[in-house]
Amino acid sequence: MTQRVLGTHGAARERLCFALDYASLDDALIGARAVAPYVGKLKVGLELFSAAGPEAVRQAAALGCELFLDLKLHDIPETVERAVAATRASGAAYLTVHASGGPAMLAAAARRAEREGGPTLLAVTVLTSLDAADLAATGVPATPADQVRRLARVAREAGIPGLVCSAAEVAGLRALLGPEVQLVTPGIRPAAAPTADQKRVATPSEALRAGASWLVVGRPLRDAPDPAAAAQALLAEVAGVAAAG
After folding, report:
1. pLDDT digits 0-9 by tens, 194-214
2. What whole-number distance in Å separates Cα of residue 191 and Cα of residue 203?
3. What domains can you pick out in the chain, each with its CATH number?
4. Of these residues, 41, 43, 72, 199, which one is catalytic?
5. Of 21, 45, 116, 180, which has the fewest CB atoms closer than 10 Å, so is most exposed?
């Protein structure tokens, strides 16, 4: 099945990442095996990493997808730098840090990732669960779009190659930063899917047309009655956007 999908929608597959938001490694691997033929990347986040640690990354990587380790590192520069080095052994291709950690932390992470030969760092700007009222409650007197642009500049100037943002900010960042920067978009919800705790969401087509490099999809696949069928439909939608130009 995987070879057939690669032959027909290989490029589109690389633009999809399935978030393994499961409480146990066994459950995560069941979900990953169902969806892996239709996605190019698998994401291990805080829940699964807390339950299974680096073993979750190693076992998921065996399914033939790139691994995205979404730990959103945010600490003093030395701690984050050493954490970047520690994650290298896991085999993860991508690792997140928080852009709000500041220039020194980001630069230390970027230097260590370059020295170690990876992983590729992605700076999280403003979480998709936050809106302007949430930012104001934390003392940030800016709209999400303004804060995303501000943090994106800080991250890029510190040497971070990619950014995580909602689809609402993708077009603006693409115009600001150009075609070379990776813009990774979570908060993806197929049409009519519930948004749950997410506030800045978009459909896969909307995010890609705005300029997203690749998409992270979790609950719409994990909680679908047939995750494999849902992933196949999502892949077809992504391939359709690419075909339309």
Report:
1. 556 566 678 899 999 999 999
2. 6
3. 2-244 (3.20.20.70)
4. 72
5. 180
